[in-house]
Amino acid sequence: MSNDFQSGSRSGYRAKRKKTNIILNSLIVIVLALIVIVAFSIFSSGDDQASKQTEPKTEEKQVAKQEDKEKDNTDKTENPADEDTAAEEEESEETAAPEDADESQAIVTEGDGSSNVVKTIENPSWQPVGTEQTGVHEPVYDDTSVDWQEMLKAISYATGLDQSSMTVYWLGRDKSTANASVGTVYSKETQEKYRVYITWVDGEGWKPTRVEELAELER
């Protein structure tokens, strides 16, 4: 009888303890589940706020880009004078440079061998080389002057020699023609020698009239 009572007491204790453990474990699971739910809610809320904070910045950037683009278009529209000025400058540069001479129109006369002139070239397609000078013109034979540089430009144009490789042997007044000059030059690269006659055209600059290829350098 005593043994049965003790056995029943133990069984009841174990059952009670087992029930208590189940309740405790259930509570622990519930608590963990609540923690997970709360944590998820917090992180989800944080992501939403971050998204909300980021979206306006992206929109602001897009708006700023659009405004910059509109401003650029407005500047281009509102400043046609700048484009006109650039076009005029480009046109001025093109006008200042003479067109290439038509070599097919060149009249070449071979020398007779009794003079220093190897051959003479005259080309009606030669044009004035342009000028920066205004007013009454008087030839200036000073190698620092604008007039001198424009004379060299005309000589280079007529002979085809590059000014950087062209050496001036002599350049002065052509006494046989009013308002005209004559220069003798040679190429440092090819050793070609030329005497070039040029005449002044008011408002248009120096124009070549005759080129003589020389056997030896002389005025």
Structural class: alpha+beta
First-residue to last-residue Cα separation: 156 Å
Strand content: 15-25%
Say how many strands there are: 6
Helix content: 40-55%
Any idea what the shape is? rod-shaped
What profile does the largest beta sheet have? 6 strands, antiparallel
Order of strands, widest sheet: 1-2-6-5-4-3
Q: What is the average of the pLDDT values?
A: 80
Any idea what the radius of gyration is? 49 Å
**What is the element string, with H for helices and E for strands?**
HHEEHEEEE
Unreliable stretches (pLDDT < 50, length at least 5) are 91-95
Number of domains: 2
Multimeric organization: single chain
Number of helices: 3
In short:
With 219 residues, this protein is an alpha+beta fold. Mean pLDDT is 80; it is low at 91-95.
Structural write-up:
This protein has a 6-stranded antiparallel β-sheet, with helices on one face. It has 2 domains: 2-78; 97-214, no CATH class. The protein contains 3 helices and 6 strands; from the N terminus they run ααββαββββ. The protein is α+β, with helices and mostly antiparallel strands and 219 residues long. β4 and β5 form a beta hairpin. The protein is rod-shaped, with a radius of gyration of 49 Å. 16% of the residues are buried. 49% of the residues lie in helices and 21% in strands. The chain has helices spanning 2-78, 80-96, 146-159, and strands at 107-110, 117-122, 166-173, 180-187, 193-201, 205-214.
